[in-house]
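The pair is listed for reference:
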Amino acid sequence: MLDLGLSKMALIGAVALIVIGPEKLPRVARTVGSLLGRAQRYVADVKAEVNRSMELDELRKMKESVEAAARDVQTSVQSTTAALEKDFSSVSNELKSLEQQHGSTSDEAPWRSPYDAASQVVPSYQHPGKNFRLKRSAVPRWYKSRQGVRTHVQSGAARVARFRPKKR
């Protein structure tokens, strides 16, 4: 880098004053300042872009590691599910063979619980009967009217018009 001290800056300023002249020096200084500002902004933009690309690479690596972990979890869940299905099928085959050995023709086997999910009847859906358009309040209307609580909102003009004496 350039080692610019105060003495070197003063020397550059004096040479510029002699070469350019006192009339054009402010305009040239303004132009040089704006060009330096643009250069600094350009360098800052390049640095920001490099940082963004580095962060993007890190995010891609993190995404790949998360996807790999998700794949591992998925394969372990699938293998566990397959093992459980295999166990359940073997248990159901054993139960069928036991039913055939005992010759039970009834639907209820002696080892089944009366609370078994397969034997329970699921009730059909019944609409709750609520109307979502009606505003439900925690405080009943009769209590509000007894206590003098306003249940309907009115503007000030409407309230004045309501209680204005009628012209005859």
Notes: Residues 25-102 form the longest helix (78 residues). Residues 7-76 form one domain. DSSP finds four helices and no strands in the chain.
